[in-house]
Design goal:
Layout (H helix, E strand, L loop, with lengths): L4 E4 L2 E4 H15 L10 H4 L1 E3 L2 E3 L17 E3 L7 E2 L12 E3 L7 E2 L12 E3 L17 E3 L23 E3 L18 E3 L28 E3 L27
Parallel strand pairs: 4-5, 5-7, 6-8, 7-9, 9-10, 10-11, 11-12, 12-13
Antiparallel strand pairs: 1-2, 3-4
InterPro entries: Leu-rich_rpt (IPR001611), Leu-rich_rpt_typical-subtyp (IPR003591), LRR_dom_sf (IPR032675), Mimecan/Epiphycan/Opticin (IPR043547)
Subcellular location: Secreted, Extracellular space, Extracellular matrix
GO cellular component, one term: extracellular matrix
């Protein structure tokens, strides 16, 4: 079929050329799309050992460069963390998964991360905690759905460097057991904690024991009157924040 000539701004333009021009305009006006199949350092920003994958709608942990030390993957759609995600990345020191949809973390997913110091799983959908790496100094699991049965009795016992523990806005019925001596800040606000024992923070068989590192405990928003459990705080330098009357 022969193309027909049309007049456009006083110039003869063939009909098929005109249609191509219109097609070009529609492509330019089309909304941008996110291609989550791109290589990690095109999809994310990789800079001096840090990988920034924030707000790009990824649904899984992307393959990371071998030398990655800091991973920021906040506000995405990640639902699951697998052992294979970090199996070959032993250099990680900080991971931030805040604001995703994580429901499951495979056993051992963080077991090889012997250098990891900071881990944030805040604002996800977890009902239990994974096994945590031994050198953590900061762990944030605020705003999840964690119940006391989802935290193993010795989950924190061997974390001798842990200083900041954030478990606020969950569904805990009790304070986690065996909190390490290194702990400075403990946030448990807005859970469902109803009981505290004399051994929760202190040692009932040692009246001289003082928990010297602890600076702050937040327990407001729990259905418990702290004034009924004054002996539970005898080893603390400051009383927990919470309801007393």
């Amino acid at each position: 079929m022969q193309s027909k000539d049309i007049i456009k701004d006083g110039t003869n333009v063939s009909l098929d050329t005109s249609l191509r021009l219109q097609g070009d305009d529609s492509e330019r006006n089309a909304p941008p799309t996110k291609d989550t199949n791109l290589p990690t350092c095109l999809l994310c920003v990789c800079l001096s050992g840090s990988v920034y994958c924030e707000e790009i709608d990824i649904e899984a942990v992307p393959p990371l460069p071998k030398e990655t030390a800091y991973l920021y993957a906040r506000f995405n759609k990640i639902k699951r963390i697998a052992v294979s995600d970090f199996a070959d990345i032993t250099t990680l020191r900080r991971i931030d998964f805040s604001g995703n949809r994580i429901e499951e973390i495979e056993d051992g997913a963080f077991s090889k991360l012997l250098l990891l110091e900071e881990l944030s799983l805040a604002e996800n959908r977890l009902i239990k905690l994974p096994v945590l790496p031994p050198k953590l100094t900061t762990f944030n699991a605020n705003q999840n759905r964690i119940k006391s049965r989802g935290i193993k009795a010795n989950a924190f016992k061997k974390l001798t460097n842990l200083a900041y523990l954030y478990l606020g806005h969950n569904a805990l019925e009790s304070v986690p057991l065996n909190l390490p001596e290194s702990l400075r800040i403990l946030h448990l606000q807005y859970n469902n904690i109803t009981t505290i024992t004399d051994d929760t923070f202190c040692k009932s068989n040692n009246t001289r024991y003082i928990r010297t590192s602890m600076d702050e405990i937040r327990m407001e928003g729990n259905p418990i009157l702290l004034a009924k459990h004054v002996n539970a705080f005898s080893c603390l330098r400051t009383l927990p924040v919470g309801t007393y009357y």
